[in-house]
Amino acid sequence: MPEGRSPILELQGITKSFGGVEALRGVDLALYPGEIHGLVGENGAGKSTLMKIIAGVHTEFSGRFLIEGQETHFRSARDAHAAGIAMVHQELSVAPDLTVAENVFLGNQPTNRFGLVQWRRMAREAGEQLARFGIDVDPMSRLADLPIGLQQLIEIARVLFSGARIVILDEPTSALSPPEVERLFSTLRRLREEGTSIVFISHFIEDILRVSDTVTVFRNGRKVAETAAATTSKGALIEAMIGRGGEALEHSYTDDLMLPRPSDSKVVLKVDRLSLARSLQDVSFEARAGEVLGIYGFMGCGQQELSRILFGKLKPDSGTLAVGGTPKTFASTAAARRAGVALVPESRRAMLFHQEPVYKNISISILDRISALLLKPAQERDIAKRQVEQLQIRPPVVGLDLGMLSGGNQQKVALAKWLTYPPKLLVLCEPTRGMDVGAKNDVINIVRDLRAKGLAVIVLSTEPETVLSLADRILVLKRGALVREFANEPVSKDRLLEAA
Amino acid sequence: MASSETVPAAGQRARGLAPFLRSQMRNIAPFLTLIFLSGFFAFASPSFATLDNLGNILTQVSVTGIIAVGLTFVILCAEIDLSIASIANVTGIAVAYFTLQESYVNIANVPLPGVAAILLSILLCALLGLVNALGLTVIGIPSFIMTLAMMQIAAGISALLVRGQIAYKVPDLIATLGSGSIGGIPWIVVVAAVMLLGGHLVLTYTRFGRYVYMVGGNREAAEYSGLNVKLILGAVMVISAVCSGIGGMLGVAHFGSAQQNEFDTYLLDSIAAVVVGGTSLFGGRGGIGNTIVGLFVLGVLNNGLDHVNIDSFLKILIRGLILLAALIINVYAQRLREKAAE
């Protein structure tokens, strides 16, 4: 950084742990006025934790925290806000039913001396601010009527224009189209000239390199590199993110892994040009029996929507899918299940009944096979016991309420639901997220076992390791479009990241 | 890491009586309320704790009980049906409308054989339930609003059928079930008992019953399990309407007349019976057993207040306060249970 300028924000030796697990280990970071500072690292590398410390969300940590050379300790996000720090989270946090102007001024609408909102002034000022951002919308239109990308730009605009000196943007570009990204970047550059400091977190390394002055790389809670953006490259950053040699407990997939020759077995699923507004564009692929198809992409790339469409939970705007029979889209999840499709979504809460015993959770999807009219609880328990034994679910008590099980075991129950009468196509979203190594290995073995039984399995994940450890063939989904297929060729984590 | 997997099991064994009681609060609290109220009235009035009066209480809660069977299904699915009383009313009026009335009854009715009158009336309430079901599942109107509209629609049909008049005659079968008795036990009590038992058996021992609980427990998970959630929600709305219709027909026979606004108090009473009994307003917890306890609490309360010397206008306020207390316990019990499950 330029000599003679002092940092507006300086962190020294920040360490933060959650229940004995260190999320950050002795991290230093300096942010200068009028600087765009890019932050890269894999999921769980510690970027978000650090940003939450800066934004006053996490208040318990060790290390020194200085603002303009003054040691500071925030007690809440409100303190951080008062100090001029604002953060835009990855998930939209707008009020969709309010107008654009109300959203821009959320929480501090201009009022007259009677406390009444000055609508005309608010609309005018909102319009002016957005125009500076290159956004030309009617400030009185309802936010929900605008495209998601525009909504996100408006949220970012709100934070950027709130007068903050330090702005943190977490994955701001994942839902934006290329021209919208361009608009965002030109605004960021203008704010930089005005002296605002910006922290920019993204998985899109090209974006980071285009707009940042400095790039910091995180790995396993440590800062492993800090470099000027002009002097580095995508390849170098990926290498720093992944790290050569084993720090990790498990296979780190940094070396090339040879994918097998694509199988020529029966096509179980044929997806034909699925499109969904702002999520998926012309997605076509096939999944075959006895094959694990991995679909990799960053968060927000359209994986979630794709999995919902495959299971009939979401209707695409156009395109069809065929499971064995004629091409169509499923009208309901019940129709998808009857056609032989099963889905395990990324959130366990979404598919399990926490207040019901384990055996009812396991039997719910197959009750119509067990009983026509009357329930057969003994048989349900038997089936559940077999699954619990096979998947080594702990504790092995099928009468226990599901909520008493640990996360990894709940995930296994979510799988067990579908295994008694295996479907033709099993769709798994983030099947190993948040699991410890042992549970991960269990899941990997279960999936391999299912493949051997001739199921078609689709694994969707934002973690390259998950896809690499399971898949025979890998598709890369980027901003809603399939951009690369890996089959019968060497693949590694950096090749995947490079493609995404 | 592996050792952490066994912690919940140890936790489970270490759980004592107190957490168990806390998790069962929704079942225990209504029962204690019932015992307390019965004890209080037995102490306060010598005429309360008699076999005769027990028969009175049973008869008094029968119509509510029949309507509450269907409503229990609806509330278990975390939905609500506000049209139950109106549907009961219109079905009761319909069965009289299709029966030959005395010449002094000035209604342009359509006399039919008794069996046809009963079947048509049941068809009518089933159809109204189906409209509720379609509005809720196909159009996506929240049940609170949909059944509010149906409440008006059913009241409107009632008004058109009787035009401010009163009808008296109902088919013989309905008259017997509504106001006759067998071996000293009123038929209406028998019908209520049979329907409550039937509802309990369906909810506890059939696949459909399990689906009702699962849809109520976590609708999203039910959908991700490939259940036809809309079909199940639609079915409970129809069941609720048919139970209301049966309650309405027998009610008309029991009261001896069919007229507009005859069942208005049954809306609140039925909801109160289900909720006071401890069935969760958030769905998935409770059942007919809870509804029965709730019916008795309401029955004892209504009946007991008549036995003690109390301002009859104050009675309404007391009933309101008891209902409020039950709602607080209901919401609180849900929270306790969630905590116990963590």
Automatic annotation (TrEMBL), chain A:
PANTHER family membership: CARBOHYDRATE TRANSPORT ATP-BINDING PROTEIN MG119-RELATED (PTHR43790), D-ALLOSE IMPORT ATP-BINDING PROTEIN ALSA-RELATED (PTHR43790:SF3)
UniProt entry tagged with the keyword Nucleotide-binding: yes
Family the entry assigns: Belongs to the ABC transporter superfamily.
InterPro entries: AAA+_ATPase (IPR003593), ABC_carbohydrate_import_ATPase (IPR050107), ABC_transporter-like_ATP-bd (IPR003439), ABC_transporter-like_CS (IPR017871), P-loop_NTPase (IPR027417)
Membrane topology per record: Peripheral membrane protein
Protein name listed in UniProt: ABC transporter ATP-binding protein
CDD domains membership: ABC_Carb_Monos_I (cd03216), ABC_Carb_Monos_II (cd03215)
Stretches assigned to the ABC transporter domain: 9-245, 263-499
Keywords: ATP-binding, Cell membrane, Membrane, Nucleotide-binding, Repeat, Sugar transport, Translocase, Transport
GO molecular function annotation: ATP binding; ATP hydrolysis activity
Entry GO terms, CC: plasma membrane
One Pfam family it belongs to: ABC_tran
Compartment(s) where it occurs, according to its Swiss-Prot or TrEMBL record: Cell membrane
Superkingdom field: Bacteria
Signal sequence range: none
Keyword Transport set for record: yes
Function: Involved in beta-(1-->2)glucan export. Transmembrane domains (TMD) form a pore in the inner membrane and the ATP-binding domain (NBD) is responsible for energy generation.
Automatic annotation (TrEMBL), chain B:
Keywords annotated in UniProt: Cell inner membrane, Cell membrane, Membrane, Transmembrane, Transmembrane helix, Transport
Localization in the cell: Cell membrane
Membrane topology qualifier: Multi-pass membrane protein
Keyword Transmembrane helix: yes
InterPro entries reported in the protein's UniProt record: ABC_transp_permease
Parts of the chain that traverse the membrane: 31-51, 57-75, 82-100, 112-131, 143-164, 184-206, 227-251, 313-333
Protein's UniProt name: ABC transporter permease
